[in-house]
Design goal:
single chain, 406 residues, alpha+beta, five-stranded mixed sheet, two-stranded antiparallel ribbon, 12 helices, binds adenosine-5'-diphosphate, binds magnesium ion
Length: 406
């Protein structure tokens, strides 16, 4: 991709440079008043055309900063020389105004600023020379309206500055965009590779776990051995859970048809499922849901998101506390809130949410929130955390409301 870009740029560069060289040669040879008595001035003109053209032509071969400076300096010498050699050609003054524009070709900010500064200083010297020494003898079109010409010059520099600023900031943004695309491509490939590895690990785990389950029930082993088997099975369960959750991120497109989701129904079934889990710690889930909450998403994924967030709230809660889940329609959004009065999180802990494998739980996978953020982003939703250490956490999940009646 990069090569293609440089190739196109190179074509454009040589195209532009050829036109510039052709025009300079035309200026040197066609109707040149000095051509009748070619003296030192004409030779200087010719030498500068040669130097400027060659430095422009060899630039793509070296692309060095020094060469860029040489180009700007030769260009300045060339344009100021023709200004002095042909005083009757008033349009030469236009070129003096546009010398800094040459550095736009190279997108070199430092060079551009330097060129802008040097050119302004040169014009000040030139105007002073015309006003004090020449006194309008050769350059009456400048001396007669020195202020007007100065303002026009400043205007032209402002325009060039504006063009440079806009195009370079656009270029920067484009560079950043390409970097991001490259980065996400790399992540995708690594993710696919990791998913393949995870899948391959799951099979041997199942076999080992199966044997351990058999040994656990085998009475020829003593109690200590059996306790060890049970521990091993537990650890394998955790490993399996990590792999399953990981695979569900790596294959996000599986079974993900968009449908009209009735938030109330989904919350009800998620609550029924998790109430059994909450009962282990005597935590109750209190549900308050409006009727008209519908979103466009995949039901399985939406359930997965809610299960992860409500499960986290239960796990953070103290024994006996309830977790309150509300859902309401707010303008074009459906807002779901999950509130607990549990352990809460510090600012740093909240910043780490969604980072793969970030977990403060001894048996946590640290993948739950990453899955939630992925699902929310997929359906243009957001998840916002509001938490205070020791006080509890409020999670606000927002999704665009789906239009009914189609
Ligand atoms: P896991 O639950 O497997 O640890 P998650 O990605 O679901 O992984 O959560 C990451 C971490 O974020 C948890 O370990 C926990 O420390 C913190 N966390 C998430 N939700 C809450 C909450 N409601 N209250 C306090 N901490 C939370
Ligand atoms: Mg979790």
């Amino acid at each position: 991709m990069k090569d293609e870009n440089t190739q196109i740029n190179l074509k454009l560069y040589y195209g532009t440079v050829s036109v510039v060289i052709a025009l300079m040669l035309l200026g040197l040879l066609a109707g040149n008043p000095l051509l009748h008595h070619p003296g030192l001035g004409y030779i200087t003109h010719g030498v500068l055309v040669f130097l400027f053209s060659s430095s422009l032509l060899i630039y793509p071969l070296y692309k060095s900063h020094t060469l860029r400076i040489i180009i700007i300096v030769t260009a300045s010498c060339y344009f100021y020389t023709i200004f002095f050699l042909y005083p009757d050609t008033w349009s030469n003054f236009i070129f003096l105004c546009f010398i800094p524009a040459i550095s736009i070709l190279y997108f070199d900010t430092k060079l551009f600023h330097l060129s802008l500064l040097l050119n302004t200083l040169s014009i000040i010297s030139l105007f002073s020379y015309i006003a004090i020494v020449d006194r309008g003898n050769h350059y009456s079109y400048i001396s007669e309206d020195l202020i007007g010409n100065s303002i026009n010059f400043l205007g032209s520099q402002a325009i060039i500055y504006f063009i440079f600023y806009l195009s370079s900031s656009r270029l920067e943004k484009q560079k950043l965009y390409y970097e991001q695309i490259k980065h996400s491509e790399r992540l995708k490939t690594t993710g696919q590779l990791a998913a393949a590895v995870a899948h391959e690990i799951r099979n041997p785990l199942t076999v080992v776990k199966g044997f351990l389950q058999v040994y656990e029930k085998d009475n020829s082993y003593n109690e200590t051995n059996k306790r060890h088997f049970s521990l091993m099975i537990n650890e394998l369960d955790t490993a399996e859970q990590v792999i399953s959750q990981f695979l569900s991120i790596a294959k996000p497109d599986k079974d993900t048809e968009m449908e009209l989701v009735n938030v109330k129904n989904v919350l009800q079934s998620v609550t029924d499922l998790l109430n059994t889990y909450g009962l282990l710690h005597h935590n109750e889930i209190v549900l308050k849901v409006d009727e008209d909450c519908f979103i466009a998403a995949n039901t399985i994924e939406f359930k997965q998101l809610l299960i992860n967030i409500i499960k986290n709230a239960i796990e953070a809660s103290n024994v006996g506390d309830s977790v309150v889940v509300t859902a309401e329609r707010k303008m074009h959004l459906v807002e779901i809130k999950v509130s607990d009065c549990g352990q809460g999180m510090s600012k740093e802990e909240m910043d780490s949410l969604g980072t793969p494998f970030y977990s403060l739980k001894s048996k946590g996978t640290g993948l739950g929130m990453m899955i939630c953020f992925n699902i929310a982003a997929k359906y243009k939703g957001t998840i916002h955390f509001d938490s205070e250490k020791g006080r509890g956490t409020n999670v606000t999940i927002r999704f665009p409301a789906a239009k009914l009646g189609r």
